[in-house]
Amino acid sequence: MGGFVVARACGLPSLTALLLRMPELSRCHRGMLAGHPPLIVRRCLPTRFVVPRCSSGQSTSAPHSTVPTSAGFGPKIKFCPACGGSTEQRIPSGEEKPRAICTSCGLVHYQNPKMVVGCLVTYEDKVLLCKRSIEPSYGLWTLPAGYMELGESAVEGAIRETWEEATAMVEVEAPFAQLDIPRIGQSYILFRARLRTLDFSPGVESLECTLFHIDEIPFDQIAFSSVAVALKYYVEDYKAGKFKVHHGVIDKQAGASPSDPSGFVVRNHICF
């Protein structure tokens, strides 16, 4: 039976990490979080949907599927960072997947997904968005988010990115979404947060920072698929009067731009 692993940091009442292990997504799993009411994990709508709406009904879709993490995904390591020798893709002894192995020193190089953390910042019925001043997706709107740094927790990284991109002081309230993008080797962890003051302004990576009413979010000008998915989940939850925690896998089409609204599908959406 699947379960939860949760942790806290910085004295915040919200969760700073949430790892789901659910081998049987067609069954409902219950878990008790310390200091929190029971949570119900359930399967959502059919397997391949563009931003599926969460449902408590039984799904008739196919069992949980996994995109193989083959050598076709992610950038290739062509030269050994240790000695500069060339690498070749081979399966190391005792393993099952090909790795970049140095032909000179024999060092095996493992590639892992990058963690992107950020905040979905709100004030009353509005959401804070930043217009990017850098590529990719220059001039398009995004949530304040970026790569997690060594030595910080997910919550600390999300707060730091929000300050860097919007100079906004926020209070993190709860986890909101984890969205995995296997093709580009990224995993997004987004937290719901509220503005502590209305004193915010563009950081060095932003042209503008604006509070958008939930009915006026510029979905046709969103920088990244992960942001578009998270915002749609947020609007649905807000209008339903209950916020959930979401997990999903974003399958990007080969060659699709980061902001292409038709360049991806979402599968295996679960929420609780």
UniProtKB/TrEMBL annotation:
PROSITE patterns: NUDIX. Gene3D superfamilies: 2.20.70.10, Nucleoside Triphosphate Pyrophosphohydrolase. Residues 112-235 form the Nudix hydrolase domain. InterPro entries: NUDIX_hydrolase-like_dom_sf (IPR015797), NUDIX_hydrolase_dom (IPR000086), Nudix_N (IPR029401). This is Nudix hydrolase domain-containing protein. It comes from Ceratopteris richardii (Triangle waterfern).
